[in-house]
Amino acid sequence: MTMQFVLASASPRRQDLLRSLGLGFRTEPADVDESSAPGEAPIPYVERIAAAKAEVVVERLGAPADTLILAADTTVDLDGEILAKPVDDDDARSMLERLSHRTHQVHTAVYAWTAEEVHASTVSTDVTFVHMTPARIDWYLSTGEHRDKAGAYGMQGAAAALVSRIDGSPSNVIGLPLAETVAVLHHCGIDLR
Predict the structure, then answer these.
(1) Could you give the percent of the chain with pLDDT greater than 90?
(2) What mean pLDDT comes out for the span 45-64?
(3) Which residues of 47-62 are buried (b: 16+ CB within 10 A; e: fewer)?
(4) Torsions phi, psi for 68 (to 5 deg)
(5) Mean pLDDT estimate for the chain
(6) Which entry of 33, 73, 138, 191 is annotated as an active-site residue?
(7) Catalytic (active site) residue 167
């Protein structure tokens, strides 16, 4: 039996990362409430959201026996506080001011479902930003790149100029830790050739 591979995400970044591995897949975006629960810590939060995304797609597709469904969720963690997607430019500015000249963590939960098993992995990466003047923050906001990004930045683009150091997986910061994702896929029966 050939395993079908479904990505439970509309994220162009996750799609590009998977395509860079030469993997064929189809997308089934999962619309879930990504609000954090009161007092919820960042790692349990991303694990819950990734699992919820996979479960929505599993239910939509009727739990197919020949399919692997991969979901992921990423968040920015500043001293234990979840920095979600900004609601507007002022919210984004506030996040960037707080991240300036500091180290924060980016957590991604990767969740793979098959009819036989579930396999999950959570990856954390330390990211240190340069000191950002108000003018540099204005410049970054003018790119529009901050919209719809956890922590108000996307390292795969102009925000790379804001990062002075990364300790851990760079692809994790973009939204899908590739080494760990390959391990999860391999565990579930999809191998890179």
Answers:
(1) 89
(2) 96
(3) bbbbbbbbbbbbeeee
(4) -105, 125
(5) 94
(6) 73
(7) no
Domain ranges for the chain: 4-187
Per-residue pLDDT reduced to its tens digit, 77-126:
999 999 999 999 999 999 999 999 999 999 999 999 999 999 999 999 99
Picking from 113, 95, 110, the residue whose alpha carbon sits closest to that of residue 154 is 95
User: 117, 135 in Cβ contact below 8 A?
Assistant: no
* Between 192 and 166, residue with greater pLDDT: 166
| 113 vs 184: CA distance, rounded Å | 10
User: How many C-alpha atoms does 60 have within 13 Å on its Cβ side?
Assistant: 15
- Residue 153's SS3 state is coil
Q: Which pTM was predicted? A: 0.94
Structure tokens at 40: 């919820």
Helix 89-99 and helix 134-143, axial crossing angle in degrees, nearest 10: 130
CATH number 3.40.50.300 is the correct assignment for the domain at 4-187: no
The two three-digit tokens of residue 24, written as one number? 């064929």
Greatest CA span in the chain, whole angstroms? 57
Alpha helices in the chain (DSSP H): 12-20, 42-61, 89-99, 134-143, 170-174, 178-187
